[in-house]
Amino acid sequence: MIHFERFKLENGLTVLFHKDITTPMAVVNVLYDVGARDESEDKTGFAHLFEHLMFGGSINIPDFDAPLQHAGGESNAFTSNDITNYYDVLPSHNLETALWLESDRMLSLAFTPKSLEVQRNVVIEEFKQRYLNQPYGDVWLELRPLAYRVHPYKWATIGKEIKHIEDATMEDVKSFFAKHYNPSNAILCVGGNFELEYVKDVVKKWFGAIPSGSKPARVLEAEPEQKEFREKLIERNVPAAAFYYAFKMPERKNAGYYLADVLSDALGRDKSSRLYASLKKEQKLVSEIGAYITGSLDNGLLIIGGKLNEGVSFNMFDKALWEVLEKLKNEIMDDTELDRLMIKIRTAREFQEQGLLNRAMNLCQFELLGDANGINEEHEIYNSITPKDLQKMAKEILKPTNCSLLKVKSNQNAES
Amino acid sequence: MLNRKKAPELQNIANIDFVKPHVYDITEKCHLFFMNEVPNDTARIDLHFDAGSGLGELGIASFVGGLLFSGTAEKSSIQISNELDALGAFYESNVAHEQAMITVYALKENIVPILRIIKDAVDNISFHEDEVQEMLNDRKQKFRVNMGKVSFLAQRKFQEKLLSGTPYGRIVEEDVYDNVSISALKRFHKENYLNGLTKVVLVGDLAQDEVDEIIDITGAWATDRKQEFATEFKNETGTHEVLKSDAIQSAIRIGRILFNKTHPDFIDFQVLNTILGDYFGSRLMSNIREDKGYTYGIGSMVAELNHSGYFLIATEVAKEVKDATIQEVKYELEKLKEELVAAEELELVKNYMLGQLLKSADGPYSMIDLYMGLEPYDMEMEFYNRSIDSIKSITPERIRELAAKYLDWNDMTVVVAGS
């Protein structure tokens, strides 16, 4: 059970407090309800570029990191297609330093041209390092537009192309900040060994006077139901052929989300999973294979990905894969397998909840879904899952008309 | 009226409580280190073996490490995976230069049953030809994928030049996956696993009888022999290039042989290293990322070996600026050798390092890792209290002195991989 308190400031900022008496460290986590899905199609990669700019100094404080480091702390952030999340970890007696810094950059940034120019370059190098200069690095740049035709999940967080980042202007930066970075669009969580009254006092002190702004309305075009099997073949300078089967799955708030999650575990989480056991160990078709979900807030993807063994064709593999999927749809899962999946889920959760930072982040994410207490209800949801539910979900999503397949062919040798 | 330009008052870290684990003798020299103050149901066990990649023919240690759960006469590898997963085990085996390790994360009540399965799996590996061949094919494919990464190409060449003349400097080529004798695998397994356990680390709220049982199970593997580590190191200086013609970024590695915790300059060098490249506001990050925008990241570190250690700067930069980056690194090293660090910067780094030390002592899992960082050198937790004093009292002069002593460009091995 993860305890927390919730209060709201008058300017609309939602605040969570999670008390942990065992640690000398404090965590300040700030989630902004903005991600790559909120970008316009001709200016992609912006939410993430903006995350970088949030470290370039704020209205009253020229440098974000130095005062935090001076207080013995450190900070980082990540951007996804759904959210942007900032966190600070520091000795708990210096909590106010983190609140001072986070509140000032929520109030306003410094918007220096130098910061924009440098961070554009840094993000372009990040783009190259992670997506262009690695074998299979560009797979998500190809797979997203194949699986999504309308919804902004069709571009990656890093952006569609480097040019969009090069073209970002100060005007874009300012309007993005004005629209998305205000108290009513944020959730703050403070974790550590404090009293609630103290947390209320210092949070009000630093965040209370920030003008509330308004929570931007999100109107995203829903992705129409997929009705046909989609397939794309690309050829790359890679040593082995690779495949990515992407199945649409329910949105985060739908109970079916958990079913798809467990299905992905059954298919390809561990070495005891169905795909690993059958396609790798028994039939020796692949060198690696796994299944996972993207964890998206809107309709996400269940991905089956891996690499073919030398001499195995995409067709041979495809046939064998669908046999495994058909079995999951046609035969009810036995309890031994379900128990095995559940103990892994429970073990993973216990380890995740070990860390104060994880707890603070997850509380914010559940609050975004509607109620931070969701963090305590999740295991009940998993426990109530039956083999019948799983079979139904398998039938619903694991079908060719719900699937987008990206194949990466090697141009290093002739076969496959 | 709130003055937003003024930072809140800071408090300094007074002291840190460093807690030692309980130590049990499995045999005279093989110990179990146990940290039991875990406030939840999680647990971890590490089994350390004298089975590092410095031993035996090239590749053998890594292959055996990859075959530990590959099946016995009684059980297939899938059966073993099934049994371990049914107990919720997250497990892996790792092979480093000087040791190999099996690590298991699980709920505390499952640790002993998991260990029994592992014991049987490792004791009775059959080295079935199919499993060996599959592992070799997988490794070869992974190797080919890695050879497409500039970071891997640079790291590989750096290892060769840095650790040259020692078993750790041996570099794998693709043909290593083609000529493996099963009898050599079996021999290594017998010598280095069945009679190769050097220590066990256990974290979790386990009962005494469970600890006793773990000692009982692992006892048969324990060895009292003295591990043989490389002792003499000398990096090959100069610049070494690796060509990858289609790369759009170049990977750079710059470093030298240095020392480990046992050296009197070790702690003070950590401060120098932090200033140079070991935090977000470091000189290298400030100059090469935050001022020039040449890279997504650049950093420096100190890594330790049993009888030595090394210093390393690593980055990936746009190919057009690889030479400019090396120039800037050189400039930053020279600056540290010639100019005194400003008081303000030094104070920031001191506070930052103390905060990080507090964090690295937060909770039983972190605490045991701190302790195990000392254990190879027979040092006591007192080392960290001394570290606190050294960090607090170090002067700009001392930092300049260390930079002059250890950061001479002529002592560096430089590797650039790219087009």
Task: Summarize the topology.
The complex is a heterodimer of chains A (416) and B (419).
Chain A: E1 5-8, E2 14-19, E3 25-32, H1 46-53, H2 65-70, E4 74-79, E5 84-91, H3 95-107, H4 113-132, H5 139-147, H6 162-166, H7 170-180, E6 186-192, H8 196-207, E7 230-236, E8 242-249, H9 256-268, H10 274-282, E9 286-293, E10 300-308, H11 314-330, H12 335-352, H13 356-369, H14 374-383, H15 387-397, E11 403-410
Parallel strand pairs in A: 2-6, 7-11
Antiparallel strand pairs in A: 1-2, 3-5, 3-6, 4-5, 8-10, 8-11, 9-10
Helix pairs in contact in A: 1-4, 3-8, 9-15, 10-11, 11-15
Chain B: E1 22-25, E2 31-35, E3 42-49, H1 60-66, H2 77-86, E4 90-95, E5 100-107, H3 111-123, H4 129-146, H5 150-162, H6 182-194, E6 197-204, H7 208-219, E7 238-243, E8 249-257, H8 266-277, H9 283-291, E9 295-304, E10 309-318, H10 322-338, H11 343-360, H12 364-372, H13 382-393, H14 396-406, E11 413-418
Give me a quick take on this structure.
The complex is a heterodimer of chains A (416) and B (419). With 416 residues, chain A is α+β, with helices and mostly antiparallel strands.
Q: How large is the radius of gyration of chain A?
A: 23 Å
Shape of chain B: globular
Order of helices and strands of chain B: EEEHHEEHHHHEHEEHHEEHHHHHE
What is the end-to-end distance of chain A?
A: 51 Å
Tell me, what is the CATH class of the largest domain in chain A? Alpha Beta
The CATH topology of the largest domain in chain B is given as Cytochrome Bc1 Complex, Chain A, domain 1
Computed CA radius of gyration of chain B, to the nearest angstrom: 24 Å
Helical amount among residues of chain A, as a percent range? 40-55%
Total helical segments of chain B: 14
Q: Spans of chain A with pLDDT under 50 lasting ≥5 residues?
A: none
CATH first level of the largest domain in chain B: Alpha Beta
Oligomer: heterodimer
Q: State the fourth-level CATH superfamily of the largest domain in chain B.
A: Metalloenzyme, LuxS/M16 peptidase-like
Structural class of chain B: alpha+beta
Biggest interface reads: A-B, 76 and 73 residues
Biggest sheet architecture of chain A: 6 strands, mixed
Overall mean pLDDT score of chain A? Answer: 96
Shape of chain A: globular
